[in-house]
Amino acid sequence: MHVDDRETSLAETMATFDRLVEAGKVRHVGASNYDGWWLARANTIAEERHLTKCSCVQPRLSSLLPHRYSDFDRRRPATGELVSYCDDHDLTMLPYSPLLPGRYGRDDRPVSERYVTMETRPKMEAVRTVANRTGVSGNQVVLARMARRTPTTIPIVGCNTVDQLEANITALDIELTDDDFQRLDSIETLGGLHRRYRSEVRIGRTRDRRSALPQRSSRNAGIPSQESTPLSRSSRLTPRRRDRSPQGEHRDPPRSLTACRDQGNRLLQRR
């Protein structure tokens, strides 16, 4: 399915491809230029009706990410939603236009305005740094990083000369270190890696904020704090309201749940 056809129902589309697979004319079913939620819906329909599901997806994907208002018509760029879905369900990705017509390795080809964001310059500097360390071009670094994604990612590349073909093939032999992966992925990327990175940072900040909070102390002298005293079920459910003693006098509500429990025990002893 090369483009998203909204005029044809997904159920009919998936049933047609399933018949092609059963007839031996097609081995696997894939989708291109699909949104993540639309691809998930197609596979859900196929699973419910015992049809062949999509096992691969062909998105527009590169190291640089376009800004949110970029217009690619029906050639939809990959999104975090799509990449995360492929990562979680082990779908092979076959990105097209991964090198943005050679813009990672040639200074005479400026980055397209559709890819100019706040992350463009640091991302290009990261690619250039890794390229200088390994002694290869920026295009080869981008291909090497993309080919080492998990699950399997097979970039679709084009070439005009034999030298370009050989350079693209050589990218598969480039050894990237953990520092290289961190440098290339920490600025901006899509999918589970960036999601886990952000969650770890968020959890770490939350823990730091909690540790910086002052410890609560009881307002009454001699009354242990709530954190150090286990509360019974009755004390947790005691309403905070003005109570009336058996003699009819009003008592102010206690200042803590522990004091509330002690007051209730005293009233029971009087009875």
UniProtKB/TrEMBL annotation:
This is Aldo/keto reductase. Keywords: Oxidoreductase. Residues 205-271 are annotated as: Disordered. Residues 228-237 have a biased composition (Low complexity). Residues 244-254 have a biased composition (Basic and acidic residues). InterPro entries: AKR_Detox_Biosynth (IPR050523), NAD(P)_OxRdtase_dom_sf (IPR036812), NADP_OxRdtase_dom (IPR023210). GO terms for molecular function: oxidoreductase activity. It holds the Pfam family Aldo_ket_red. Residues 214-227 have a biased composition (Polar residues). Residues 1-188 form the NADP-dependent oxidoreductase domain. Gene3D superfamilies: NADP-dependent oxidoreductase domain (3.20.20.100). The lineage of its organism: Archaea, Methanobacteriati, Methanobacteriota, Stenosarchaea group, Halobacteria. It comes from Halosimplex litoreum.
